[in-house]
Each structure stands twice: as structure tokens, then as C-alpha cells.
Structures
1.
Amino acid sequence: MRRIILLFVFSQSILLYSQDSLKVQPKQSGKIIYAEETFKASRIILGQSVENPPNGVLTLLISHHFGALNSGFYNFFGLDQSSTRLGLEYGATNWLAIGLGRSTYDKTWDGYLKFRILRQSKGARKMPLSLGIFTNIAVNTLKLTTDRPDYFYARLSYCTQVLFARKFGEIFSLQLTPTWIHMNLVPTPQDHNDIFSLGAGASVKVSEVVSLNVEYFYLFPGQHLDGNKNSFSISCDIKAGAHVFQLFLTNSQGNFEEAFIGDTKGKWFNGDIYFGFNIHRMFTVKYPKAKKK
Amino acid sequence: MKKQGHKVLSFLLYFFLTVIAFSCKYYNEDDLTPAPPPCDTTNVTYMNIILPIFNANCIVCHSTAIGSGGIILDTYTDAKVPAQNGMLWNAVSWAPGFPFRMPKDGAQLPSCDLAKIKKWIDSGVPQ
């Protein structure tokens, strides 16, 4: 019950604040200069960035991981294996994005909401950072192979993240991402159903179209995550018109939050490195009113 | 129109958060996996318990008609001989160093069947 009340208060405050912050803008007498393109896409590499698609824009996101580089010549260093997530993300308003995706990893469907609460700005209104909130539900649809009862709830997991980002000057951006993952089902009673992690991501703009990124998710100790490792990824982003291509190396096989934060088994120093790419393709579904005319 | 959009979004947000709030569980695989049924080793006699185990697993080779290796298990008089001299238990429990592992070329008997055979031998091979 306490959780429900907290969620109600939390959601109410998001709605009121977000609507209010948008309404306030035109009333400002001076000009507000927002920090544009803190990150090139809605993902820093694997994790969410503070960026949302603009209102009326639908993004198709194809996220693809090959197998581990240390899997040898027989598997052509991982190119014979693959794990893919196909996703859609829609900017329902300027402060809310709605997403849906399906991953090869555990045949998982995930749906999410991403709120943009604050935007870094200067001028008439000074805001030192951008703030977003991300929350998702993931459903594992693998066929059950053991003889335990197949509860639907046991297939669910959730992730909630607060995204604090700041763009320093024109070339460097940094984001901190405190993360709470809840898994309805864990292997043993010693494993924690709630997992806490702190993510950090940074981006350096090399040119107008290229940027280099790094991302790390630190799992707090004492959560009995047998064999789990911290996720670490590096990437190169290339922006080309309505496309953003992200080429990355990571030790995580999964491509949704519960998998790459809560279930990373690979170790960089063992060569468990997965090459992969994200392709973001933006489609303008609903044109802004000014452009319609 | 804009207000209606906000209503839809509010509904969506509350629906999403309500689903999260009500579907949050604390399961683990160990608790959900049913425990194996308990193994009943009371009143183990040849006729009631042991003969059905032999019929299901051993009689193909160790019947009165075939009697492979001189071992016969489908009559009480013949079956109690290997039971009492230790051959039966050594064979079915795959005792280290014992040359035969029964059932021949098959998987070992289930642990509950082994426990019943052990109990039968230890309690003096009752008929």
C-alpha cells in the first residue's frame, strides 16, 4: 500500500511539474537557451541517455550484439552469433517518450516511459543540468523447461532510473544514472530481488557528426549476484541525417536494462567482449503546427 | 484537444505505474520448485514393494526362465540369495570395485527405489 501511495505522489508530481515547466516557457520575457544534443541519441551506448525523441517523432531502434570476440576462428570471433533488440520509441510530448521493444535475449518484450523533467538551460532561465526519469517493465517469454508452476508475475522485471546529465561547453557531456532494478524471480533465496546500481556515461564530440562515448554501470556490493560483472562499454557515434549509428564494444550480452545491468557475465580481461551496433532511424509522424502551414 | 491528450497520457502513466505496483513480487526459483515427493520406506516386503521394482527393471534378464548370471529375482526363494550375500546391493548401488552395474547398460535406479531395496535388505529380506 505504501508503495502505491508513493507511486501516486511520484507520478502526480511528474505530471504537474512537466506540464507546468512547459507552460512557463512562453511567459519568460528573455530568451531561454537550451543545451542541445547533450547526447547524439536516446541511448548513450546500451543505457538510456537524457535525450528523448521530439514530440511527434518516432524512432526505430535496431540494437545488435554479436558473440564474444574470444569465441575463436570457428565462430568467426563472434560474428556467427547474434542477439538483437528491435524497438520503437515515440515522442508523445516534448517531455514524455513511450517505447516498446523485443529482444532475442531471453525472448524478452519491454515497454517503457521516459520523462524529461528538467532541461539544462541558460539565458532567461538558468538550469545547471538536465533531468530525466526512465521506468520500464520487461517480460521474459521463454518456454519453461523446469517443472515449477509458470506464474506470469515470475516473468516480470522492472527498471527505474534517474538520469542526471550536463553538457560542459560544446564538446563534453556527462551523465550519472542511479538505477533500481526489481526482478520478480531470482535463482536462490540468497539473491536479492532488488538490485541497485550507479551508472555513468560520458560523450566527447569529435566533430559535428562523430562522437566517442564511454559507459559504466557499477553494481553495489553485497547483492549476491553470483558471477555478475559491472557493464562497461565504449562506442563511436556517427550521425547522418535522420540516422544515428553507434558502433560499440561491451562485455554485456543483453540489450535492455535488466539484462545488461543485472545479468552481465562477461569480463573484458578474459576477452568476453561483444561487438555490436545501434541504428536509430527517426521518422516525423506528426509535424509541429508551425510547419504544417 | 491538448487537454484530451494530457488525459490520455495521465491514464497511461497511472496504468503503467499501477501495473508495476500490483505485480511486484519477491519469488526465487528454489521456493517455486516443488519438493520431490517423500520416499516411503515403511512396511517394505518382497511381495508388496520389491517385486514390482524387479519386474520393472530386472526381470528381462533375471527371470526364472532366463536366469542370467545365475541370478533369479522373480521368486522370493531365489531373490533372497543375492540380497543376503551382498551381490544385489553392490550391483544396484554401483559399488566401487564391483564388476557389475545394474540395470545393465541403463541408468541407475531412482534413489527412492534404492532406499527401499536397502531397507528390505537391512530388515532381513521379509517376504
2.
Amino acid sequence: MAHNESHAHGPSQELHHEPLPTRVYVGVFVALLFLTFVTVWIAGFDFGSFNMVVAMAVAVTKASLVVLYFMNLKHDHDRLNGFVFALGLFFLVVFIAPTMWDAFTRDAVDPDRARTVELQPQQVPAAGAPAQQPAAGQPATPNPQQ
Amino acid sequence: MSTTTAPIPAEVKRHTVGHHFNNAEQEFSAAKLGFWIFLCTEVLMFGGLFVGFIYFRTFLAETFLVAHRTLSIPIGTVNTVVLITSSFTMAMAIRSAMVNKLGQMKMFLWATFLLAGAFMAIKLGIEWPPKFEHGTLPAKFFNAEHAFEAYPFLASVESPHIFYSLYFVMTGMHGIHILIGMGLLLWIIKRAYAGEFYSGFFTPLEIFGLYWHFVDLIWIFLFPLFYLVG
């Protein structure tokens, strides 16, 4: 096949990528270990409702290090890869944000329907523990309205 | 430590690009773009599970706070360190291939495989058996009698079985990804021994690296959510 001639070994047949220096990977690795111990250490303190915020801040920092250096988005020649991933994260936000919006504010909008999910299974109270009653004033029946 | 690339060893199979690509760079870029798109579907699949976590945690904050104390922070921390280390060894394996240090590449690949095995061994061998013993299991498998005996404080909260449903589904789904990764890694190692990877061709290594770092990424969020904050 004549076409094969253009496929002889040559510069276009092989990659020529300059890797990041080893110290970058070692640095990121050490930073990830450090942040792991930081987040475990911080978990020993109680910041109330900020516990989750602090833990997620550390997790996002660690995730950024992994994505930017180990997954190489920072130096990727194809900026499209980063764009595609950012788009995926945007969809994730679209997924999560309205759910949180609903979950966090449902009680304020309609206290009766704040407990539409009947969370208590039948078999759990059987053992030793006193049966968990639905909160006072809340109907135990599922909400008839869809 | 230098970034100078060693000469291409004689034993490697020199790469030729697929006939449907113009050159190596295009082949490499296409593979990577395809994999990043796949990773977006993974983000959304795990995203669904995280949404479930957020939703139930909102309505059962007390349950999550109490039930998460039954998980072992030392085991979780050790596994986090194991997984981060495996991510590092994977990144180093790719780098080694890029500079033609092929012996070093194989060593880092095996290290990654062994660390992945260690992660699963700790999870399945040390962490999960007590949960089966104490009945702190998902949904209808939750054994209230055993669970309340082992952890009396669980009896005071509503629906602890929901916490364990999310715990087992989310860490289990992550664990399945680790097992799939170990299988893929064996295939990568086989190809490495066949002399396929060197500075001129390391696309499968790079793609597997993206997968492996992504699995690490998921654990980076699972660890604080379940073990630390609850």
C-alpha cells in the first residue's frame, strides 16, 4: 500500500512531550499528604455547621492539585480537555444546587410537606429501642398529594 | 531528576499511528479528549450519589452525625494515604515512560497495583467484616439488634440504616472502580512488558492515569464526607 510510505517511522509517528520535572510530582504528593493530615486534625475541632465547609474546602484544594498536576490540566496542550471537564462540573452544579435549594428551604415553604419522605422502616424499632415516633404534629401517613 | 530524555531503548516496539489519524499528536489528543468526556459521565454518575447523600443528610443531620462515629478514622486515613500514594506512583510511571526509564516505569506500575490491592484488602479485610458482624448494613439488611448492642448511641437516632445504605453504595461503587482499575492495570503492565510504551508512545498509560487519578479524586470527597464530618 502506497499509503504506508507516509507511515514510515518519523517525527509524526511518535510523541515528543516534555514531562514535568519530578519535583512537581513529589511536591504535589507531599502537599496531598499534608492536606490529608490537616483535614483529619481539623475534624477534631467542632466548628458547628462550618465543619462541612472546612472539610470541603480542604477536599476541593486536594482535588484541584490532583486535577491540575497529576491529571495535567494545567499544562495540557489541549485546552479543550479542561473545558470539557469544567462543563461536566457545571452539569454537576446544575444537578446539586436545585436539590440543595429544595432540601434546605422546603421546611420554610411548607412545613407539612417537609417530611414527605417516610423515613422510618418498620423493622428497625423492633429491637430493644423504643419505637421512633413521627415528630409530634406530623402526620405519619404519606402525603396524599403528588 | 533531570528532564532530559534517555535514548529510546532498542527493545521497544516503535509506534506507528492508526491509519485513521494524521500523526501521533492527533491520535494522543483524540484519545485524551474521548476519555475526558467519559470522565464527565463518571462525574455525573457519582454526582447522583453525592446528591443522594446531601439530600438525606439534610433531613437526617443528627443520624449522619451519630452514625459516622461508627466508621474508623484511622482506617479511612490509612486508605487515603494508600490511594494518594498510588496516584503519585502512577504519575511517576507515566513520567518514567516519557523519559525512557522503562525499568523504573514497570516498578512504578507494580507499586500502583500493589497499593490498589492494599486499599481493597484494608477495606474488605479489615474495615467491612465488623460491619457485617454488627449488622450496620444498608436498608433492610440493617440489623438493629446487633447494631444497637455494638453502638448503643445508634438507638437514639432516626433511620441509621439510611446512612449505611449511602456508605456502602458510595464506597462500594468506588471500590468497584478500584477493582476495574486493577484489572486494567494488569493489562497495562502486560503491554509495558511487551515493550509498547516509551517516550514516543504512552497513550494507554496516560489514559489509565487519568482514570486512576479520577478514582483518587472521588475518594478525596468520600473520605471527609463519611469519616470526618458525617
